[in-house]
Design a protein that fits this description.
With about 90 residues, the protein is an alpha+beta fold. It contains three helices and five strands.
């Protein structure tokens, strides 16, 4: 699986995630799990609706989400943050 990180994802990862060492560890674990098995139920992967239709999200923690889209077999990560930050 090929993963591409959008500039917005990188910016928000640095701003929202890197200040918390436990969150860094959890984000790396969940992203690696997603790469190995995107259908793992732990991720709570789901399609988005409304203005975000066409995108999907999966959970890092109870409140932290990754927003992504699959285009021609490549997964593009667009955003990461709390529920309120990414929706």
């Amino acid at each position: 699986m090929k993963i591409e990180y959008n500039d917005s994802f990188i910016k928000h990862y640095k701003k929202r995630i890197t200040s918390n060492h436990l969150l860094i560890k959890k984000a790396k674990e969940r992203i690696n799990l997603f790469i190995k098995n995107p259908n793992d139920p732990i991720l709570k992967d789901h399609p988005l609706k409304g203005k975000s239709k066409g995108f999907r999200a999966f959970s890092i923690t109870g409140d932290i989400r990754v927003i992504y889209q699959i285009i021609e077999g490549t997964v593009y990560f667009f955003d990461i943050g709390t529920h309120n930050q990414v929706y």
